[in-house]
Design brief:
Shape: extended
Largest sheet: 4 strands, mixed
Distance between the termini: 6 Å
Helix content: over 70%
Strand content: 5-15%
Order of helices and strands: HHHHHHHHEHHEEEHHEEEEHHHHHHHH
Length: 737
Amino acid sequence: MNKKKMIRLTALVGVATATGVVAVANQAHAATTTTTETTNQTTNASVESTQAAVEAAQSAFDTAQASVDNAQANVTSASKNVTSASATLSSAIANKKVATSENIASATSAVSSQAVVVASASQAVSEQAGVVSAAASVQASAQAEATSASASLSSASANVASATSALSAAEAALTSDQSTATNNLSAAESAASSTSAAVSSDQAAVDNAQAAVSSAQAIVEVQSSDVINMSAAYITALKNYLANPSSANAAALQEVAKGADYVKELQQKFKSDASLDVVDPSDPAVQEALSVYAVNLINQLRNQCGLTTAFGASANANVAALDFVKKYYDDKDWNIFGTTGSDGQGHNKNGLDAYAVQLNTSIAEDAGSGLTTWVNGKATMATTTLHNLLYAVYSDIATMLFDDGGTNNWSHAQSIFEDGTILGTDGFNNVYLGLAFDKYGYAHYELYNATEGNQLGNNAYSLDVQTAAQTLLANAQATLASAKASLQRMTTNLMVAKAAVVAAQDQLAALENSSASDSAAVTAARTQLESAKTSYQTALATYQQKEAALEKANDELANVQASLEAAQATLATAKAKLAELEETVANLTNADQLLAAAQAAYEQAVANLTVATGNLEAAQVDLAKAEAQLALAEEAVEQAEARAEIATQVDQQLNGSNANDRQSAGQDATSLKTNGRSLTATVATASATNPKRGADQGRLPQTDADNQEASAMALVGLGMLGLTTGLYGYKKKKLTE
């Protein structure tokens, strides 16, 4: 709170005396209430009045601010005008300095010379305009001829279209029945061709089925008859060696085995038909037959040796064998025996280890010459007939028995006859054999230990070879019978289809003999079409010629128009140069007048700037006054609001007291002290003799209720006696903010 407010409020508070308060306290409570309400109304009216004064002062301030902004814009504009006039004056002074008679004469001469140039350029423009006009006439004529040629071409094209349509109609009349007959013939020929293809397909199926029957018959015969018999001496020596593979036992086994003529055994026992067809060794049916054949041979040998556990064969084991041989022999070009028998790479032991880990099982591998024969010490692949495949299996197993001494230490025989272990490796309690041939023709016999986990025993083959072979034969014979029946049906259908072709050919020949008149119409329509085409070609040539002439005329017109535009540009440049020279002559000739005018304009601009600057300063003064008035009005509002707040507090205090409180307040008035100061003046005396009131009235906005304000102030002093020490403390705080 500022100093001015502090003086006013202090004057209001210090106007009550003990005597005055006692007198008022003894009055009726109703009179007191009326007086405080009047005071509140008066102070509220004062707040509204001073607020209106603030709004009026704000409006005056805004108006003054707008006047300052406008005056500032005028000063800026006048300053720019002075700058421009100054530049013009400088140019006029410079022009005056060079406005000598010699310079004027020289400039006048230049004007005359440039006028000649302008005249020459104007003549060139006129001449080129004539050239353009002539070229435009030629172009218009060429355009008309091209348009006419285009119309003729369109007419000729329409004639060709009409003749083509007439020919199509005549040909349609000629070929309508022929087309039907031709279509019938094509359909009959297509049906005959399809049926013929079906006959060929069925014949191939019959041939394949016949071969399958032959193969099945051979398998039945082989599976039921081939046996390898071992001598009692061999069996005894083999058992001794398996129980104790010592050098002595190995020598004894070799001694017994060397006299066995297994080749003669093969010749006597192997009865497969050598005329059987060529087969694929990886075909599942062939694999099944070979693996079952091999396992039965091995199991017969194991039975002769007194072993009760048998090897098994399964589709899963065969698939694993094919995969292993492809991955670790074929793909790696791993030749197990080589080309001479002594240059081979042997078993792929790393591959066996890796594949055992992959399948999570134990694996042993035997290998034989398979389909390879040796001619002059070189390996040669035999034809893969079923006969050769079966013979290879029989030969390999027999060789493992009787010709496996030396460095191999009878390892092949051990793999066949050991029980629960193979070559010293445990984990062969459920052996399944998978058989596969590599790309060199060598046979690989993979022995797996089958478990539920690796599922190598799943999809097991029946080892009841007689029943299986008979079933295979029965299936093959049923397939052959079905193929023959289908072939018979297709053969009959082919005969019917060929008869339909002959009938369609006869129908077409009859129609061709009865279409002479239609042929004549077609000939006439073709002659008319050829004539129309000739006319069209003539019209086309004419059109192309006229189009070429039009294009040439367009190019010529564009060229001369470009030349005209260039001449016009030259003329415009010459005229601009002439105008510039003429302006120079005028400036030099009128140098005195131009200088005087520039001087006058400059002085006027300076004078205008002076006036604008004065107006700006005056507006700024008015703005400062309006700002001061606005500040005073805002201060008056703050004071009026403070008075209203005090009056409200007093009213609330008085209205909240009962009669006993007022009596007590009157009794205690004579001894009331406020912050150590006694109230010694009456309300009336304070109102009449306050020396600062006049000064306040001169500084602050006044309302039309000054007398009421004085009474209100007296009532405020009266109300102080009703306040408690806490309220007085609050008033003290307000005075010292």
